[in-house]
Design goal:
CATH architecture of the largest domain: 3-Layer(aba) Sandwich
Shape: globular
Number of helices: 23
Structural class: alpha/beta
Strand order of the largest sheet: 3-2-4-5-7-6
Low-confidence stretches: 6-22
Number of strands: 19
Strand content: 15-25%
CATH topology of the largest domain: Rossmann fold
Mean pLDDT: 93
Number of domains: 3
CATH class of the largest domain: Alpha Beta
Distance between the termini: 75 Å
Radius of gyration: 26 Å
CATH superfamily of the largest domain: Thiamin diphosphate (ThDP)-binding fold, Pyr/PP domains
């Protein structure tokens, strides 16, 4: 238990401590600062991502002094993104610490994103005093932060008394990791930190959370129903989502796929749960597999926009499919289409229950279906290989990603962070992953700006090298965090695909005015110089050999590196491959 040094006590605490012990010993006190630190450490939460400032500056200092790792960012949103990815990688809530009002709002985007993506995260924010906020008396950065946070996260709590810190932290942890994980907001008014409590009482108030995410067993009849539907399939398909990757039941997923012999399609952050070169992977035959399958088994995946909501042209004729869905949240079932066999429970318990009943005589899918997928996969991979092998200067997206594909094949243990429009969409299908939870990207919301936060958290939490592949637009959202990467000397290599603009750098101003088009950036920018400005390594390349050499040197050295990869500005397409989501005006068109 951390204690408050006598010279640090408030006058009130000093007065109240006089002559309170019969044996003339001095009563020890602690305060809200130290009590919060003790509550977090007791529960194994030892890393904080955040931005210092009023009223939490001293909390960061004291946390570091008490053995916690405090990673200070340049912007709260990126600290929040780091905390969210930390939660995804560790299954423990990542911690983001922000100042009040504007800082809280900056962190709120990351909190909402964590909730949508089912990443466990706790946003801890200092705040103004309740009595002033409630009367709207104009306090410093006055804002009712709890009310604002509630609709955007899984749970929100406010702690008003130091004696409640232990319970408050425990409730936040349970809310973040139990059931479907998500973001939690913890409101910490400034006066809370200075409150003084006797050490004995403080120790009794701390809570060590036991079994924060208990197993949720599926109903036996749900397992039987699911197996009957799967057994009836002629063209079955498994879709593996990042929920299965988060669960860290990799062996069970692998055993289920290989025992049933069913082709599988991994969602982007589930890539590597089984190697992308696995013979049952249908990733390179995605369109055919989705359209022609008759039974689809969803493992921790959701039928949202990333899967065309389970309907439409991508899925073939209406009513041609039956779905088996394994998810920890019953509300997910029937969200877009009817689920014939819902299985509600945690991924490990559900898969183990299924595997127990499969038996060694489980019928394998018809050979014709397996051959159809294999033929389409091989044809598409052969076509792709021709594009990836092109030696272009400047590079296009396929040339550059083909080089990085080979780097990761030779270094399967590194973590890949990926965001952008074309840079993200093409990388999903081009770069193979071989190990689970090695690919981190924009996830369910598809937002830009997660790159540097995710890269920093990946390096901090795993200690392994990170390759961040960024579109030039996406990098702009969090690019200043290269200073953070350099400050902490992290083994992060950033590759910025620079094609002078959003999607491409060739748009023009239709009026002929001096302003450039809204999607165009400064031509021939040198992003690599940002890294050299802070003591890192900066390199500019325009061909695949230079790119390969620069990335390998960066990963070997472990030094913060930014590679400005020059891409042909004509190479991009509108919104990558989701341009249909951009409505277009028809006014004046015939």
């Amino acid at each position: 238990m951390s204690t408050v040094a006598p010279e640090k006590k408030s006058k009130e605490a000093a007065t109240s401590s006089k002559e309170q012990s019969n044996d003339e010993s001095t009563v020890e006190y602690t305060d809200g600062f130290h009590l919060l630190i003790d509550a977090l450490k007791l529960n194994g939460l030892n890393t904080i991502y955040g931005v210092p400032g009023i009223p939490i500056t001293d909390f960061g200092r004291l946390a570091q002094a008490n053995g916690m790792r405090v990673i200070s960012f340049r912007h709260e949103q990126h600290a929040g993104n780091a905390a969210a990815i930390a939660g995804y990688l560790t299954q423990k809530p990542g911690l983001c610490l922000t100042v009040s009002a504007p800082g809280f709002l900056n962190g709120l985007t990351a909190l909402a994103n964590a909730t949508v993506n089912c990443f466990p995260m706790i946003l801890l924010s200092g705040s103004s005093e309740r009595e002033v906020v409630d009367l709207q008396q104009g306090d410093y950065e006055e804002m009712d932060q709890l009310a604002i946070a509630k609709p955007l996260c899984k749970a929100a709590f406010r702690i008003l008394h130091a004696e409640d810190i232990g319970i408050g932290v425990a409730r936040a942890i349970r809310a973040a990791v139990s059931g479907r994980p998500g973001g939690v907001y913890l409101d910490l008014p400034a006066k809370l930190f200075g409150q003084v409590v006797e050490v004995a009482k403080a120790q009794q108030s701390l809570v060590k959370v036991v079994d924060a995410a208990p197993a949720q067993l599926p109903a036996p009849q749900a397992i039987d129903r699911a197996l009957e539907v799967i057994k009836s399939a002629k063209r079955p398909l498994i879709i593996i989502g990042k929920g299965a990757a988060y669960a860290q039941v990799d062996d069970a997923v692998k055993q289920f796929v290989e025992s049933t012999g069913i082709p599988y399609l991994p969602m982007s952050m589930a890539k590597g749960l089984l190697p992308d070169n696995h013979p049952l992977s249908a990733a390179a035959a995605r369109s055919l597999a989705l359209k022609q399958s008759d039974v689809v088994i969803m493992l921790g995946a959701r039928l949202n926009w990333l899967l065309s909501h389970g309907k439409g042209k991508a899925w073939g004729e209406p009513g041609s499919k039956r779905f088996v869905q394994i998810d920890i949240d019953p509300r997910e079932m029937d969200s877009n289409v009817e689920i014939a066999a819902p299985v509600v429970g945690d991924m490990g318990s559900c898969l183990n229950a299924i595997l127990e009943k499969l038996g060694s005589a489980w019928p394998q899918p018809p050979e014709a279906w397996l051959n159809e997928i294999a033929e389409k996969r091989n044809t598409n991979l052969a076509k792709m290989a021709q594009r990836l092998g092109a030696d272009l200067t400047p590079m296009d997206f396929h040339t550059a990603l083909g080089a990085l594909k080979q780097v990761i094949k030779e270094r399967p243990d590194i973590l890949l962070v990926n965001e952008g429009a074309n840079t993200l969409d093409f990388a999903r299908s081009i770069i193979d992953m071989y190990q689970p939870r090695k690919r981190l990207d924009v996830g369910t919301w598809g937002i830009m700006g997660i790159g540097m936060g995710a890269a920093i958290a990946a390096a901090i939490e795993t200690g392994k090298p990170v390759l961040a592949v960024e579109g030039d637009s996406a990098f702009g959202f969090s690019g200043m965090e290269v200073e953070t990467i350099c400050r902490y000397k992290l083994p992060v290599c950033i590759v910025v695909f620079n094609n002078n603009g959003i999607y491409r750098g060739t748009d023009t101003n239709p009026t002929g005015g001096s302003d450039v088009a809204p999607t165009v950036f400064v031509k021939d920018s040198r992003y690599d110089m940002m890294m050299t400005a802070f003591g890192g390594v900066g390199v500019s390349v325009d061909n695949r050999d230079e790119l390969t050499t620069a990335v390998n040197q960066a990963l070997d050295s472990g030094k913060p590196t930014l590679i400005n990869a020059v891409i042909d500005e004509n190479a991009g397409t509108e919104s990558g491959r989701i341009g249909n989501l951009n409505p277009q005006s028809t006014v004046g068109k015939k």
